[in-house]
Specification:
Distance between the termini: 49 Å
Strand content: 15-25%
Number of strands: 14
Oligomer: single chain
Radius of gyration: 20 Å
Number of domains: 3
Helix content: 25-40%
Number of helices: 12
Order of helices and strands: EHEHEEEHHHHHEEHEEEEEEEHHHH
CATH class of the largest domain: Alpha Beta
CATH topology of the largest domain: Uridine Diphospho-n-acetylenolpyruvylglucosamine Reductase, domain 3
Shape: globular
Length: about 300
């Protein structure tokens, strides 16, 4: 039983932020509710007030603005999965969204709610990280913008101030010749490892690579040392991938050694590193093949 709740339906993001500041810890933001209601049903969180933001027009936006995709915080995963805007230079986001949980969750769950909840075993933040995405946060009087890497600060922790709400996500498009891929693995309801990559070729070599790994620690991370090593690598070598016993597999595992990997019911830290190394190789090979074919 959830008990008695007061539902507030502000008309603007500023009103919602002001309510959050006024009601404090007794209130929670409510959009899709896929995470929030589960927490409440399990007795892990209790609030007397829910601030329903689904009706705020600015939070329902989904549009392309120049070279960026603008996603309102209340846009559902299913809307993103099915939107014709998520193709070409935003195609990896559709690939990721199609793998989020299940259709029931995707129908109600929202991108903003997912990011604000900051569940470490989750897909969207990893894909957004390689896209260099930004979140826009609104307070009662002004907005501020943060890179996604600075917004999620730990497991279930974000940089949201007590008088702010997340209003939209801004996603820069991929470079014109770049290709991308998102792959994941899990044996439970939530993923054990998620990997997002972008490969931009120059001739027959890698000009730039971006690699992010999520679900293995408190927050998704970019593998900057690996990205630097991939620059100049022949595209054919990247597309060829690796095999479990060869030197390049060990190099990928070593690249993950310095990360804050957490052992939990999804697997030990060492297991997650091994799985992540395989998925990084697979994702890079897929992106390289897509770049070669122009897909």
């Amino acid at each position: 039983m959830l008990g008695r709740l007061a539902i507030h339906q502000p008309a603007t993001a500023a009103e919602a932020a002001a309510l959050r500041a006024k009601l404090g810890d007794d209130a929670a933001i409510y959009a899709g509710g896929s995470e929030l209601l589960l927490v409440m049903k399990e007795g892990l969180g209790r609030w007397q007030h829910l601030i329903d933001v689904k009706g705020i027009p600015a939070l329902r936006e989904l549009r392309v603005d120049g070279d960026r995709l603008v996603i309102g915080a209340a846009v559902s995963h299913r809307q993103l999965e099915r939107s014709p805007l998520l193709h070409g230079r935003f195609g990896m986001l559709r690939e990721m969204e199609a793998q989020v949980a299940n259709v029931r969750v995707r129908n109600v769950g929202t991108l903003g709610g997912n990011l604000a909840f900051a569940e470490p075993h989750s897909d969207p933040a990893t894909a957004l990280l390689v896209h260099d995405a930004r979140v826009v946060l609104a307070g009662p009087r002004s907005e501020r913008t943060l890179p996604i890497a600075d917004f999620i600060t730990g497991s279930y922790e974000t940089a949201l101030a007590p008088d702010e709400i997340l209003v939209r996500v801004e996603v820069p498009a991929l470079p014109p010749k770049a290709a991308s891929a998102y792959v994941k693995f899990g044996v439970h309801e939530r993923p054990t490892v998620g990997v997002a990559v972008i490969v931009e070729p120059s001739g027959d070599a890698v000009d730039e690579a971006r690699v992010a790994v999520g679900c293995i620690g408190p927050a998704p991370v970019r593998l900057s040392a690996l990205e630097a090593r991939l620059a100049g690598t022949r595209m054919a070598a990247v597309e060829a991938g690796i095999h479990g016993t060869d030197r390049r597999h060990r190099e990928l595992v070593d690249a993950l050694t310095a990360l804050d990997v957490v052992s939990d019911l999804h697997g030990s830290a060492d297991y997650k590193r091994e799985v992540a190394a395989v998925l990084v190789s697979r994702a890079l090979a897929t992106a390289a093949a897509r770049a070669r074919s122009g897909a």
